[in-house]
């Protein structure tokens, strides 16, 4: 599939500079892949963006269907991309009043077949800055180091952090290794000045909070 009338090639530029490089219309070009004989890709992506500017969530598909050169398949691809982006960024600036408030934003990791160690960074107002994967392990184990956990948080000027990981193979009760890892991270958090508010373990049906079970050993305690 070739993106037409596009010099330099947008895909090459994105691979070189990252997804923040292209304009909105160029991102649409990447999604569409090609235009039609009657409507070149740049014109088509421009028309799509005009339709999106005039759309709300409930009428995106209807408005895209009016764009010449956009069939059902491409309309669905664009709408799906928007929905995926919405789901991936819905957590931004959400206020965490208690650590378990982050569970809905990380619940999707509970169904994965390998352990994923997740970091949720917060600003001084306890608004979520970012949710990121710090480490991916095996079915029943993931190795983490304070360097990987706190390096990004320092660059984000985070004031606090909640960590989490999933247990793909069974209960969300913490292992001895989970407890030891948490104590190590708490010790590191005191050094770097980023409070560790909780460690949450997820399984498919529930979660375990170190804070709620009085297993989060803080400096004040």
Structure description:
The structure is a single chain. By secondary structure, this protein is an alpha+beta fold. The chain is built from eight helices and five strands, in the order H-H-H-H-H-H-E-E-H-E-H-E-E. A five-stranded mixed sheet has the order 2-1-3-4-5. Helix 8 links the parallel strand 3 and strand 4. It is elongated, with a radius of gyration of 22 Å. It starts with 9 loop residues before the first helix and ends in a 12-residue tail after the last strand.
| Backbone shape | elongated
Overall mean pLDDT stands at 86
Strand order of the largest sheet: 2-1-3-4-5
Structural class designation? alpha+beta
Assembly category: single chain
**Tally of helical segments:** 8
How much beta, percentage-wise?
Answer: 15-25%
- Give the C-alpha Rg: 22 Å
Q: Name the poorly predicted regions.
A: 1-7
Instruction: Spell the H/E element sequence.
Output: HHHHHHEEHEHEE
Helix content: 25-40%
Distance between the termini: 61 Å
Q: Give me the count of strands.
A: 5
Largest sheet: 5 strands, mixed
């Amino acid at each position: 599939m070739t993106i037409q009338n596009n010099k330099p090639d947008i895909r090459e530029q994105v691979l070189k500079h990252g997804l923040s490089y292209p304009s909105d219309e160029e991102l649409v070009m990447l999604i569409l892949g090609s235009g039609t004989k009657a409507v070149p890709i740049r014109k088509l992506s421009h028309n799509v963006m005009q339709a999106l500017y005039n759309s709300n969530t409930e009428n995106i598909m209807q408005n895209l269907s009016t764009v010449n050169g956009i069939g059902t398949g491409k309309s669905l691809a664009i709408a799906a991309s928007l929905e995926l982006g919405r789901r991936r960024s819905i957590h931004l600036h959400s206020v965490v009043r208690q650590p378990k408030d982050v569970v809905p934003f990380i619940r999707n990791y509970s169904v994965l077949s390998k352990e994923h160690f997740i970091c949720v960074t917060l600003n001084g107002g306890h608004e979520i800055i970012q949710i990121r994967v710090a480490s991916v392990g095996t079915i029943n184990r993931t190795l983490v180091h304070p360097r990987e956990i706190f390096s990004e948080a320092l660059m984000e000027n985070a004031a606090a952090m909640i960590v989490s990981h999933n247990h793909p193979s069974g209960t969300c009760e913490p292992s001895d290794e989970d407890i030891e890892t948490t104590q190590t991270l708490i010790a590191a958090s005191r050094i770097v000045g980023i409070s560790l508010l909780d460690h949450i373990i997820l399984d498919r049906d529930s979660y375990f909070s170190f804070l709620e079970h009085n297993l989060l050993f803080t400096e004040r305690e």
